Amino acid sequence: MTTTAVAPLTTADAEALVTTAVEAAEKAGVTVSVTVLDAGGHLLAFRRDDRAVLISGETSTRKAYTALQLNSPTADLVDAVQPGGLFHTLPTALDRPLLFIAGGVPVRRDGRLIGAVGVGGGAPEQDHGFATAAVESLA
């Protein structure tokens, strides 16, 4: 059996993700916090702007963690946690609470999950757009 190695998310990649998300937010006139996690859930890069709402840093981290754990953009998971949804009981089953609000996006390389980025501070749809722009810029 042959396996193909996939390059991990590096600190340089993480910093580029933060920079791109922040630039996209600034163009929209929004102040955000950005968190980047590697595939193991370890913090690689973080930026919290003092002009952002204080909780935006925790929000961006939880969005990234949720996208990483469920390997899906958080915007796609909102319905899954509603009563009767696939993950209705999941948020209380884990040690770290998940956050099902748009703004968390997995980072993939060669089709494999290598990390996640989370953005908090704007409207959920804006945060999702900033995170998606960052991930797309890495490709």
What is this structure, in a nutshell?
By secondary structure, this protein is an alpha+beta fold.
Strand content: 15-25%
Specify the biggest β-sheet: 4 strands, antiparallel
Residues in helix, %: 25-40%
* Structural classification: alpha+beta
Pfam families: HbpS-like
Protein name: Heme-binding protein
InterPro entries: GlcG_carb_metab_protein, PduO/GlcC-like, PduO/GlcC-like_sf
Descriptive overview:
This is Heme-binding protein. InterPro entries: GlcG_carb_metab_protein, PduO/GlcC-like, PduO/GlcC-like_sf. Pfam families: HbpS-like (PF03928). By secondary structure, the protein is α+β, with helices and mostly antiparallel strands. Helices cover 34% and strands 19% of the residues. It has a 4-stranded antiparallel β-sheet with strand order 2-1-4-3. A hairpin with a 4-residue loop joins strand 1 (33-38) and strand 2 (43-47). Helix 1 packs across helix 3 (124-138). It is globular and about 50 Å long.
Indicate the topology.
Blueprint: H1 11-27, E1 33-38, E2 43-47, H2 56-70, E3 104-109, E4 112-120, H3 124-138
Antiparallel strand pairs: 1-2, 1-4, 3-4
Helix pairs in contact: 1-3
Features:
GlcG_carb_metab_protein, 3 helices, 139 residues, globular, 19% strand, Heme-binding protein, PduO/GlcC-like_sf, PduO/GlcC-like, single chain, alpha+beta, 4-stranded antiparallel beta sheet
